[in-house]
Design goal:
globular; mainly beta; 8 strands; 49% strand
Length: 105
C-alpha cells in the first residue's frame, strides 16, 4: 500500500498484483501479466520489456508509458498513454466501469 519506486528495473511474473497506491517513476518493467488487480496505480515515464504482456487486468490507473507495450488486458478505469501498443484485449470478463481510455501518442 502507498509505495513509490523511482529509477528501477522491476522484473517478475505477476508484479504488483493487488497493490494499492503504487507509483512507479522512470522504471523499466518486465515479466508476464504485470500490474494487474491494482488500485490507484500510477506510472510516470516508464518502459516495458518487449515480452511483457497482458498488463493492467482489472486495474484502475494513470499510466504514461514510453515506447511500446506488447499487450493490455481488461483495464477497469483510468487512462493509459503509450508510444505504441501491440494489442488491447477487452473481453466479456472486464469489470465495471470499464471506461479506461487507451491512447497512443
Amino acid at each position: 500500500d502507498n509505495v513509490t519506486v523511482y529509477d528501477s528495473e522491476l522484473n517478475g511474473e505477476f508484479l504488483g498484483w493487488h497493490s494499492r497506491g503504487l507509483r512507479l517513476v522512470n522504471c523499466h518493467i518486465s515479466g508476464e501479466q504485470p500490474l494487474c488487480y491494482a488500485k490507484d496505480l500510477v506510472l510516470e515515464n516508464c518502459t516495458f520489456d518487449p515480452e511483457c504482456d497482458r498488463a493492467f487486468e482489472y486495474s484502475t490507473l494513470q499510466a504514461d508509458i514510453r515506447g511500446h507495450i506488447k499487450s493490455i488486458k481488461n483495464p477497469t478505469s483510468g487512462k493509459i498513454v503509450a508510444d505504441s501498443i501491440g494489442e488491447v484485449i477487452i473481453d466479456k470478463n472486464i469489470k465495471q466501469p470499464a471506461d479506461c481510455q487507451i491512447l497512443t501518442r
